[in-house]
């Protein structure tokens, strides 16, 4: 009897948990619906402005549709997935497409098990071009692309072989190098931190570039590197940031998707209690200036901007015009697909900006080869 | 007797219907069309062979995790550690599948057996602590979940692979995947489904048809009476937990040898074990009930992915699932209403 009552209470707790959990995420959809809504408004205002042109345009493109599958971060992760979705929305509104079947759409993955399902579902919904956002979708994309050889696929941040797959990669190590320079100029305690998502080759690329950038400016700066073990662990991000700041670190660069929201939360907490505190966060993927705003202060020093949106739009346009290109496509500093945000003018001083630009020149000229793995980093550091 | 069996069947059915109705009302409140929403759900789960296949893939581990929870509960034990036992079973199966090179007739059973043993060992710890020191099994098994999660991650990273995110695929001789099922449905449908059904049958057989099963149930009904009748209560508690854990371990093997063919580093729980609690609850802690409950959950989960195509946010399905559990949990209320209306009828 006691057991039974206990079981009931637990079931009730489980229920409450599920309901609350569902409430939490339904919030996200509300915001994404909002996005969709404003998108529609854009569409209608656009069609009002350029009526005739738009109608011919949508006629010619009405048979093209494009969709993407997010990894577990979701389209509101304020970073990578969101950037890709913004790219698709932009592409859609430029070409008079509507959200949904036959236009542009996304499918959100709650767990690794959903990737294949989501991709196949989009194939069955007759989308012409389907993006897999994030290296975690590598296996799923390669399976689906083999099964449906007459469809076009693209994967971001990973390489999948196949005549119908485009692999979009970025030279994140270059951008990370530059924000490393900025961090090294900004730090007063000579301690900077790096928070990664999972310890994968991709994120090690960020880490290596960043560490090389910091050490290039000042060899004596200590760099603390920690991995949260996931891209959706804001709580862990906050904990790591809290420890780092406590130990005197004053600039943290995060390459961890939604986990980084925790890093921002911690920095803002500190700044709120003590507006004079010297804590900074360097954002990733998108310009995360808005994330860092707290009262009149802003803790976002800069962001390593990786224009997934540009890449997504680029490929969509090519595919729509029949110029789909399989194989590896690399984006870097040269194409402005990787850049350093300058929005926080108060913190990101002229001095920092000048020196970042200097290093950028050196990279684009080929004077220095930025390391992209830990082995290359070691060789690079030894040569300093 | 007949009456209680009747209620055991009717109450979950009513709960499900009430849950669906409540979900429809919520959809209406938020301005979505519940009919097209549920139609999308149905099509997403059974729309064509592919989706039917994927639904069965999803159902397979749920059956086993539901059976695992139900089995322990029939002995009066609450195994929340199913999640962790799924993890160690998954890892053990994949490990055997990757590391060994044997003919299929040995390799596949060995891999599944390894999963069952690993899950059983993981279940042994809370069972033993409960029997020996009266440590509450809920607390221990919850903690064991975290130990399992992080241990498995560490082993994948540093023992099985060299700092990779996931293991290699299991050898073909250890794989449950079937060429013709894949050809037929294009999905990841694999033979694990049969194993899950055998698992459910085993649970029924052990509990209902063997002396040991009678003892286990007896301990579940009343420990003191069982002791007085000369049964070894402590040993039965441990045994129950080990068998429950073995079922959960095999659920993990279904993932490792069937659906995925590998194991990757997980940043969080898969929820197979936790959903198993709901499956068992819905199924009234019986074998057949767990199979049906697993079907309902699998259908809802896979179908939910398709609901956005009808404009309905798929979080709504989570709400419907939660409501169904809620109504099952408040079965006393339904029972009360049923009995009351019966009395009035007389």
Could you explain the architecture of this structure?
The complex is a heterodimer of chains A (384) and B (346). Chain A is α/β, with parallel strands linked by helices. Chain A has two domains: 31-170 and 311-315, Response regulator (Rossmann fold), CATH 3.40.50.2300; 172-306 and 349-383, 3-Layer(aba) Sandwich (Rossmann fold), CATH 3.40.50. Chain A has twelve helices and 14 strands. Chain A has helices at 2-49, 51-61, 80-94, 114-124, 138-147, 172-186, 201-217, 234-246, 260-273, 308-320, 350-365, 374-383, and strands at residues 66-69, 104-107, 129-133, 152-156, 165-170, 191-196, 222-227, 251-255, 280-285, 293-294, 297-298, 300-306, 327-331, 338-340. In chain A, the strands form three sheets. In chain A, strands 2-1-3-4-5-13 form a six-stranded parallel sheet, with helices on both faces. Chain A has a six-stranded mixed sheet with strand order 7-6-8-9-12-14, sandwiched between helices. In chain A, helix 1 (2-49) packs across helix 2 (51-61), helix 6 packs antiparallel against helix 11 and helix 8 crosses helix 9 (260-273). The relative contact order of chain A is 0.11. The mean pLDDT of chain B is 89. By secondary structure, chain B is mainly alpha-helical. Chain B has a domain at 62-295. In chain B, 57% of the residues are buried. Chain B starts with a helix and ends with a helix. Chain A binds chain B through residues 3, 6-8, 10-12, 14-15, 18-19, 21-22, 25-26, 29-30, 33, 72, 100-101, 105, 107-108, 111-114, 116-118, 120-121, 124-125, 147, 198-200, 229-233, and chain B through 44, 48, 50, 54, 58, 73, 76, 78, 153, 157, 163, 165, 186, 188, 259-260, 264-268, 270-271, 274, 277-278, 281, 302, 305-306, 308-309, 311, 313-316, 318-319, 321-323, 325-326, 328-329.
What labels describe this entry?
heterodimer; A: 384 residues; alpha/beta; Rossmann fold; 17% strand; B: 346 residues; mainly alpha; transmembrane helix (chain B); membrane (chain B)
């Amino acid at each position: 009897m006691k057991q039974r009552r206990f079981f009931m209470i637990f079931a009730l707790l489980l229920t409450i948990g599920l309901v609350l959990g569902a409430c939490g995420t339904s919030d996200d959809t509300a915001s994404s619906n909002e996005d969709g809504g404003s998108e529609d408004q854009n569409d209608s205002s656009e069609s009002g402005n350029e009526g005739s042109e738009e109608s011919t345009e949508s006629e010619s493109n009405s048979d093209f549709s494009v969709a993407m599958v997010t990894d577990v971060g979701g389209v509101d992760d304020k970073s990578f997935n969101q950037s890709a979705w913004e790219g698709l929305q932009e592409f859609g509104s430029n070409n008079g497409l509507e959200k949904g079947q036959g236009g542009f759409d996304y499918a959100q993955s709650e767990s690794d098990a959903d990737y294949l399902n989501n991709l196949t579902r989009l194939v069955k919904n007759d989308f012409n071009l389907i993006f897999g956002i994030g290296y975690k979708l590598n296996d799923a994309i390669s399976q689906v692309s083999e099964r449906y050889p007459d469809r076009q696929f693209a994967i971001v941040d990973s390489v999948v072989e196949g005549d119908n797959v485009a692999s979009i990669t970025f030279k994140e190590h270059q951008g990370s190098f530059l924000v490393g320079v900025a961090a090294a100029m900004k730090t007063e305690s000579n301690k900077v931190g790096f928070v990664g998502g999972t310890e994968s080759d991709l994120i090690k690329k960020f880490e290596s570039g960043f560490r090389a950038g910091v050490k290039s400016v000042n060899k004596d700066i200590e760099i603390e590197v920690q991995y949260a073990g996931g891209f959706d662990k804001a709580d862990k991000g906050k904990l790591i940031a809290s420890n780092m700041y406590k130990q005197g670190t004053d600039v943290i660069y995060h390459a961890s998707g939604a986990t980084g929201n925790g890093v921002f939360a911690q920095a803002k907490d500190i700044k709120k209690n003590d507006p004079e505190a010297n804590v900074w966060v360097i954002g990733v993927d998108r310009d995360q200036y808005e994330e860092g705003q707290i009262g009149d202060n802003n803790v976002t020093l800069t962001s390593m901007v990786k224009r997934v949106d540009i890449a997504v739009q680029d490929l969509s346009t090519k595919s729509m015009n029949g110029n789909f290109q399989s194989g590896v496509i690399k984006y870097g500093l040269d194409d402005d697909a990787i850049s350093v945000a300058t929005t926080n003018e108060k913190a990101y001083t002229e001095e920092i900006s000048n020196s970042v630009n200097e290093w950028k020149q050196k990279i684009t000229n080929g004077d220095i080869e930025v390391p992209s793995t830990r082995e290359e980093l070691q060789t690079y550091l030894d040569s300093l | 007797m007949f009456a209680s069996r009747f209620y055991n069947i009717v109450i979950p059915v009513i709960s499900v219907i009430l849950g669906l109705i409540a979900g429809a009302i919520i959809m209406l409140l938020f301005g979505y069309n519940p009919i097209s929403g549920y139609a999308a759900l149905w099509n997403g789960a059974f729309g064509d062979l592919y989706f039917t296949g994927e639904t069965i893939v999803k159902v397979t581990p749920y059956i086993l995790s539901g059976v695992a929870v139900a089995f322990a509960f029939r002995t009066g034990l609450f195994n929340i550690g199913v999640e962790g036992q799924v993890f160690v079973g998954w890892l053990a199966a994949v490990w055997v599948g990757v590391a060994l090179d044997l003919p299929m007739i040995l390799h596949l059973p060995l891999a599944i057996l390894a999963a069952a043993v690993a899950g059983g060992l993981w279940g042994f710890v809370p069972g033993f602590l409960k029997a020996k020191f009266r440590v509450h099994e809920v607390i221990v098994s919850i903690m064991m979940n975290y130990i399992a999660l992080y241990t498995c991650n560490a082993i994948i990273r540093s023992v099985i692979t060299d700092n990779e995110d996931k293991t290699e695929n299991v050898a073909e001789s250890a794989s449950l995947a079937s060429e013709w099922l894949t050809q037929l449905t294009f999905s990841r449908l694999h033979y694990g489904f049969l194993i899950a059904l055998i698992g459910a049958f085993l649970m029924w057989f052990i509990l209902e048809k063997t002396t040991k099963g009678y003892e286990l149930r007896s301990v579940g009904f009343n420990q003191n009476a069982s002791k007085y009748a000369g049964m070894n209560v402590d040993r039965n508690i441990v045994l129950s937990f080990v068998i429950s854990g073995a079922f959960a371990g095999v659920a993990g093997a279904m993932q490792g040898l069937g659906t995925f063919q590998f194991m990757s580093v997980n940043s969080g729980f898969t929820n197979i074990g936790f959903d198993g609690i709901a499956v068992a609850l819905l199924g009234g802690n019986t074998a057949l009930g767990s199979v049906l409950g697993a079907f309902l959950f699998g259908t809802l989960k896979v179908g939910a992915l398709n609901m956005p195509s009808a404009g309905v946010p798929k979080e709504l399905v989570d709400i419907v699932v939660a409501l169904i559990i809620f109504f099952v949990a408040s079965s006393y209320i339904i029972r009360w209403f049923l009995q009351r209306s019966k009395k009035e009828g007389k």
